[in-house]
């Protein structure tokens, strides 16, 4: 009996340890963009088994000093671009890295250095036809992903977008107007926008107005993202001379905002974006103050009802007084 009890105890410990490991989720959305990554290759379509890629990476200089103290190694991977994931569940992107199927091809794992990193890779023969990008994961001493970098954004920031409010300006809902202008970022290669069809401009909550508000939470999965809840306008895509003036709706809540524009292809998929703030959402933010107090119409109605109430009260007083006089006369 003692042996059986011990065996059960050991088995319980093993199972609990296994479940604890499984529950240790590492979410892509929680990783810092720790590396700047570039991939050099010949122009045009690359041939598996023949062409080569040269990768270069270094520490993201926007990070604070000592941010890389726990960085031990870098893992380079070849990843499917969104256009080659559509309707292919076996390539689906998941925020949970253990479930993510975006980056299935390991290129190399090397010790971490903050600069002067490069690696040349001949594309393997078994790589399938697809559109790709390269992502580098930073690993800690336990082999866990704690940062990343990639040679493109999941959604390229190919639009340059500006809005009329200045940094910190306070606007009144129901009265003020915002003028938004946007155009193609000319730093991208010619033909980048060949599949751009429409642009959807949205009003988005800044981080300071998302804090402790789960209903405004950001998520890398756009279907779950709650950052940009207010649609301003959707227009056909043009590379330049785009502008729209929006009168702030009366029901827009008090908060700090920025503007973002999403670019869609012919299938309705988001393929690019642009925004009025920086990547950390700290610049070019403006505040909207919601309508508070009573509207003038309510004040007018209240005044009318007050006057009516006074007149009614006086009227009832005289009616009751007259009745009382008549009763006394009968007596």
Strand and helix layout:
Elements (H helix, E strand, L loop, with lengths): L1 H22 L8 E2 L1 E6 L11 E8 L13 E8 L24 E7 L5 E6 L9 E8 L5 E6 L8 E5 L6 E3 L4 E8 L13 E8 L24 E7 L5 E6 L7 E10 L5 E6 L10 E4 L6 H35 L1
Parallel strand pairs: 1-8, 10-17
Antiparallel strand pairs: 2-3, 3-6, 4-5, 4-7, 7-8, 9-11, 11-14, 12-13, 12-15, 15-16, 15-17
Tally of helical segments: 2
Instruction: Note poorly predicted spans.
Output: 16-23
Number of strands: 17
Content of β-strand = 25-35%
Helix content: 10-25%
CATH superfamily of the largest domain: Immunoglobulins
CATH architectural arrangement of the largest domain = Sandwich
CATH topology of the largest domain: Immunoglobulin-like
Kindly report the average pLDDT value.
85
Overall domain count? 2
Given this structure, which CATH class of the largest domain is correct?
Answer: Mainly Beta
Descriptive report:
- The chain crosses the membrane at residues 296-319.
- The chain starts with a helix and ends with a helix.
- The strands form 4 sheets. Strands 10, 12, 13, 15, 16 and 17 form a 6-stranded mixed sheet that branches. A 5-stranded mixed sheet has the order 1-8-7-4-5, with no helix packed on it. Strands 2-3-6 form a 3-stranded antiparallel sheet, with no helix packed on it.
- It folds into 2 domains: 26-150, Macroglobulin (MG2) domain (Immunoglobulin-like, Sandwich), CATH 2.60.40.1930; 159-289, Sandwich (Immunoglobulin-like).
- It contains 2 helices and 17 strands.
- β15 (255-264) and β16 (270-275) form a beta hairpin.
- By secondary structure, it is of the alpha+beta class.
